[in-house]
Design brief:
about 10% helix; Membrane-bound Lytic Murein Transglycosylase D, Chain A; 20 strands; 3 domains; Thrombin, subunit H; about 325 residues; 6-stranded antiparallel barrel; about 35% strand; mainly beta
C-alpha cells in the first residue's frame, strides 16, 4: 500500500512538473518597436485589449515614462502578457519567434472601495438632512435611530434607503480659484421606517464614521462598484483640483478630484495620464522652441462623475503627484 501511495505521489509530481514545463515552453512572438507605437496601441494590437497598457507599464520598471518606448526596443508577446526584452547582454536571447495563439482577454475593470467621496457641485442639493438623533445624542452609529426632514411631500415612503454624507469643505480650482463645490465623504446608510408629511424616522443600517445631526442625505448608492475601463470618445484635458486627504503631495492609491465631468465627456472607467509641461532651455537651441513633449508622471482611473467634476484614484506614479497637476487622455494615443 505504501508503495502504491509513493507511486501515486510521484505521478502527481511528474504531472505537475510537465504542466509547468509546458507553460514555460510557450514561445513568444518577438516584436521590434517602430516609430508611432504606443503602449495603448501595442496592447490593442497583440492582446486585443487596449486597457492592458497599465499592466505593461507597471510590470516593466525600465519604462519610467509610458511614452518612453522607442524604435528598436524588443517585446516578447505571449498569449496573456507583453514583456520588454532586456537590453543586449542583460540576458540570453529570446527563443525564435512563434505566433501567439489568439485568446480573448478578460474585461479590464477597476474596483472602488466606496470611501472615495466626491464633489457636491455648486447648485446641487441633497435629498435631505438628518435633523435630530434619538434621545438628543451627539453621535450615532449602526442600528441607532435618527430623524430626517424627508417626508411624504417629497414622495418618500417607509423602506426608502439613503446614503449619508458630510461636507469636508469648499474646493477651489488651483488655477482660477473659482469655488467648484464642496468635498464630501460617506458616513453610512439609513432606511426610513416611519414617514410623516414633512419628516421621517429612520434607522442607520451601516456606519463607517460617527454620524451627527446636520449630515446630509442622497438617494442610496452602492459603495463598492466594479468599473469597466473604457476609452473616451473625445480628448480630455483637466486638472487635479483637490485630494481626498487634503495633502498637496500624493501617490499611488490616493483619491483625487478632477474638474472633468459628464459635461466634458468624462466617464467612469476612463484612464488618464498625469502630465507636466517641460520648459525648453533656449540657451542651447538655434531656433525658438515653443513646446517640448510633456513629462508623464502617473496615471489615474475615473471612478465616478458629476456634471463638471469627477472622483479618481491614482493607479501609477513615477514621481510625486501634486494638486494642480494636469491630466489628459488623447484619442490618438
Amino acid at each position: 500500500m505504501k508503495r502504491i501511495f509513493s507511486l501515486a505521489l510521484l505521478f502527481l509530481c511528474l504531472a505537475g512538473t510537465a504542466q509547468l514545463a509546458a507553460a514555460e515552453q510557450e514561445q513568444p512572438t518577438i516584436y521590434t518597436i517602430v516609430p508611432g507605437d504606443t503602449l495603448w496601441g501595442l496592447s490593442q494590437r497583440f492582446l486585443k485589449d487596449p486597457y492592458y497598457w497599465p499592466n505593461l507599464w507597471a510590470n516593466n520598471q525600465a519604462i519610467g515614462n509610458p511614452h518612453f518606448i522607442y524604435p528598436g526596443q524588443r517585446l516578447r508577446i505571449y498569449s496573456d502578457r507583453i514583456e520588454i526584452e532586456p537590453a543586449p547582454g542583460a540576458s540570453k536571447q529570446a527563443p525564435a519567434a512563434e505566433a501567439a495563439r489568439e485568446e480573448a482577454p478578460q474585461a479590464a475593470v477597476f474596483n472602488t472601495t466606496g470611501s472615495e467621496g466626491f464633489l457636491l457641485e455648486n447648485g446641487a442639493n441633497p435629498a435631505g438632512l438628518i435633523i435630530s438623533l434619538h434621545q438628543n445624542r451627539e453621535m450615532a452609529g449602526t442600528d441607532d435611530i435618527v430623524y430626517t426632514d424627508i417626508g411624504l411631500d417629497q414622495g418618500a415612503s417607509a423602506g426608502d434607503r439613503f446614503s449619508i454624507f458630510k461636507k469636508i469643505g469648499a474646493v477651489s480650482h488651483p488655477l482660477t480659484n473659482v469655488i467648484l463645490g464642496q468635498q464630501v465623504m460617506p458616513l453610512g446608510e439609513l432606511q426610513l421606517s416611519e414617514v410623516e408629511e414633512k419628516a421621517s424616522k429612520a434607522i442607520i443600517t451601516k456606519s463607517y464614521q460617527e454620524i451627527s445631526a446636520g449630515s446630509f442625505l442622497l438617494p442610496y448608492r452602492d459603495r463598492k462598484v466594479t468599473v469597466p475601463l473604457k476609452s473616451s470618445d473625445r480628448d480630455l484635458v483637466g486638472y487635479i483640483v483637490q485630494t481626498q486627504t487634503g495633502n498637496t503631495a500624493i501617490a499611488v492609491n490616493d483619491v483625487v478630484f478632477l474638474d472633468l465631468g459628464k459635461a466634458q465627456g468624462a466617464q467612469p472607467g476612463n484612464m488618464l495620464y498625469i502630465v507636466r509641461d517641460v520648459t525648453p532651455d533656449q540657451r542651447y537651441a538655434n531656433t525658438r522652441i515653443e513646446k517640448l513633449p510633456v513629462e508623464v508622471v502617473g496615471a489615474l482611473v475615473v471612478v465616478s462623475t458629476g456634471l463638471n467634476s469627477s472622483t479618481a484614484v491614482i493607479v501609477k506614479s513615477v514621481d510625486t503627484v501634486y494638486r494642480g497637476d494636469r491630466v489628459e487622455m488623447r484619442k490618438n494615443r
